[in-house]
């Protein structure tokens, strides 16, 4: 079932669904941790599972003579395979992420063909981050610089149009396309107005729905919704939440994800006496956020697990 169909059904029923995001295991590890996480959350009827896609890392390997060999590796491969395995084992909708970074348009198309052959109907289209060590995002010479271009490519495949124009009478794919939105503005956008225009370009290119970056103040989400609707963006916007879980996140989350932390949350975390106290504070804050969002009628809430689902299980018990 396509994600936008799930969202429409939830709106008709006046129900709020939930989804969550998982990281592929590190290379050499087993998929068992993924299955264990999903097993713990299945009793709460999640709408879907997102599987992230990770750009390659750069490693410098010592060589003879004191030289270093630059090697590009993927530390978390397997997004498409994991998605197929999860769908087959649990019968749940999966949303593999797909990124522009490091891929040509032909390689991206091949990945989409694999997803289509596996019966995967949903994809989250992202630009992705810059390669580690680069100051700015550099696309593949035959790739895309913006997520809107990837969205347009997927939308063309849905119409039977492929990158190789010489191929005729192509099979039409049927992907439901999600994209990312930023309630507090993308870090590289010069201002919120420009950021909304970039988001509208993704929707105009064919995106069916939006999943937001994490935020910790619901007022930011509601302002974002107003800005989207004013700009003519009418697709569903799924709020993304992350349970706060460690004191070090007071600096890490703003640094990495460019989000603001409300003063009340910062004070509550700073006064915690231990790690479990911090986790409980984060759970309570996230539950309060989710309850307000449910009361506002959002069709779904997306949880960023960051590889740790215990707190999401505790939140789901409270809400779903």
How would you concisely characterize the structure shown here?
The chain has eleven helices and ten strands. It is globular and about 60 Å long. The chain is an alpha/beta fold.
Q: How many structural domains in the coordinates? A: 1
Main sheet record: 8 strands, parallel, barrel
| Largest sheet: spatial strand order | 1-2-5-6-7-8-9-10
Shape: globular
- The ordered H/E elements are HEHEEEHEHEHEHEHEHHHEH
Rg to the nearest angstrom?
20 Å
Structural class: alpha/beta
Number of helices: 11
CATH class: Alpha Beta
Distance separating the two termini: 21 Å
How would you classify the quaternary structure?
A: single chain
Query: Residue share in helices?
Result: 40-55%
Low-confidence stretches: none
Indicate the CATH architecture. Answer: Alpha-Beta Barrel
Count the strands?
10
Mean pLDDT: 93
Strand content: 15-25%
By CATH, the topology is TIM Barrel
Write a structural description.
- This protein has an 8-stranded parallel beta barrel with strand order 1-2-5-6-7-8-9-10, surrounded by 5 helices.
- The protein contains 11 helices and 10 strands.
- By secondary structure, it is of the alpha/beta class.
- Helix 5 runs parallel beside helix 6 (192-205) and helix 10 (275-295) packs parallel to helix 11 (310-319).
- Helices cover 42% and strands 18% of the residues.
- The mean pLDDT is 93.
- It has a single domain (3-319), classed as TIM Barrel (Alpha-Beta Barrel), CATH 3.20.20.
- It has helices spanning 3-13, 32-41, 79-90, 105-117, 147-158, 192-205, 218-230, 249-257, 263-270, 275-295, 310-319, and strands at 17-22, 48-51, 57-62, 68-73, 93-99, 122-126, 176-181, 209-214, 237-241, 300-304.
């Amino acid at each position: 079932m396509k994600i936008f169909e799930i969202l429409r059904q939830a709106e008709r029923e006046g129900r709020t669904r939930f989804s969550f995001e998982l990281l592929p295991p590190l290379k050499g590890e087993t998929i068992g941790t993924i299955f264990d996480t999903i097993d713990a959350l299945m009793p709460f009827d999640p709408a879907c599972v997102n599987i992230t896609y990770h750009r390659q890392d750069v490693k410098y390997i010592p060589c003879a003579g004191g030289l270093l060999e630059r090697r590009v590796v993927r530390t978390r491969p397997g997004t498409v395979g994991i998605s197929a395995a999860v769908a087959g084992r649990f019968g749940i909708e999966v949303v593999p992420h797909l990124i522009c970074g490091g891929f040509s348009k032909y390689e991206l198309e091949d990945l989409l063909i694999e997803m289509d052959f596996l019966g995967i109907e949903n994809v989250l289209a992202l630009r992705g981050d810059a390669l580690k060590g680069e100051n700015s995002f550099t696309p593949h010479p035959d790739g895309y610089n913006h997520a809107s271009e990837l969205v347009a490519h997927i939308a063309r495949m849905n119409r039977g149009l492929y990158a190789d124009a010489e191929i005729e009478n192509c099979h039409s794919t049927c992907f439901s396309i999600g994209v990312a939105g930023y309630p507090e503005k993308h870090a590289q956008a010069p201002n919120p107005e420009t950021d909304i225009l970039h988001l509208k370009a993704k929707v105009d290119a064919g995106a069916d729905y939006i999943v937001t970056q994490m935020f910790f103040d619901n007022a930011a989400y509601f302002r974002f919704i107003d800005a989207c609707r004013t700009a003519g963006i009418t697709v569903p916007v799924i709020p993304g939440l992350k349970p706060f879980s460690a004191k070090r996140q007071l600096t890490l989350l703003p640094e990495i994800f460019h989000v603001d932390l409300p003063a009340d949350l910062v004070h509550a975390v700073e006064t915690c006496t231990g790690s479990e106290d911090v986790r409980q504070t984060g759970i309570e804050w996230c539950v309060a956020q989710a309850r307000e969002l449910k009361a506002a009628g959002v069709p779904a809430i997306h949880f960023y697990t960051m590889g740790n689902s215990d707190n999401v299980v505790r939140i789901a018990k409270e809400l779903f």
